[in-house]
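ok so for the tutorial part 2 we go from a plain amino acid sequence to predicted structure tokens. step 1 is just haveing the sequence, like this:
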Amino acid sequence: MSITINAAFDSGNIDVVAIAGDHVDLAIRLDHQSDFFQWFHFRVAGAKGRTLTLRITNAAQSAYPFGWPGYKVRASTDRLAWRMIPTRYVDGVLEFEWSGDSELVWFAYFEPYTIERHDALVARIALEPGVTHRELGQSLDGRAIDCLDIGTGPKQVWLYARQHPGESMAEWWMEGALEWLTDAANPVARALREKATFHCVPNMNPDGSFRGHLRTNAAGVNLNREWYTPTLEKSPEVLCVRDAMDATGVAFAIDVHGDEAIAANFFAGFEGIPSWTDALGAKYTEFGERLAAHSPDFQTARGYDKAAPGKANLSMSTNQLAERFGAVSMTLEMPFKDHDPNPDAEFGWSGARSKTLAHACLEVLADMIDAI
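step 2 — the prediction. this is what the tokens look like for a chain of 372 residues:
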């Protein structure tokens, strides 16, 4: 029997270029109406007893080809455990092998977080005591932009993820945050809920998530470049969230992402906003330093270059919220590779570790909330 390749499912993305025996050439599809691509997620059937060689032939043309060196594909036979497998990037082609005793195997750029899992998370958390669910608006494809409000305190905290849908680690982080915040047996969470009200948007880009996009929504728009002037026509997802933020105000915010190249967890801040003050910047810096001391899965040595004074891009959410509200806002970047200061040879960075990092972030926030 020949093997078959399928990506016609929630978050699936791949095209078959050619199959010759046990050798498969593949290409990642572009985001709809966009030149971005890098996310892949597909199934191979008929794999039992074979040694397959799979090649992604257009890897060099992807959005971030500098992210491929040192990267390892995730593979799963049960869609629960996603292990890293040996991967090569040579002459612009991403290549990997598979040998196993299972008929079916799935491959993905990172451990997927499907819309089906998102819907189950929202339903589960909405039933927890003290949680209020709001549908802030709808995406271009008509999917709900869900928000879960937790807590009664005066400090307004916004946690939001997956503006870039292929960064699935971001929603794993949100799952961890929501579980921690609703844990009735956690006295730290209970005390934090009394000091702050949390507004949690687990998935800002459900259309891109379902379509298997890397970075854009159904119109090919990068939502994290829409925060200055969002529109109903191109970015209703941002518009409805920003309107909700205007209604509550924002004291503290984390925008959760993934980074293709840097093998570490890190924050990006709001340096360069017109209203920058050293006092506000010091709170952002202190949060990162405390988190690095609190968790072996965070560090402050590696990260992005900082914007020059007055040169911040206000179309990006972290800069917009700091400028608009005086918020202590930050972008959390997690790796598609591994957190090299504390590596895991089997799973690399993973959904489970993303959830644990969320717990650590909230524990640090609990220690700092009075000063924010």
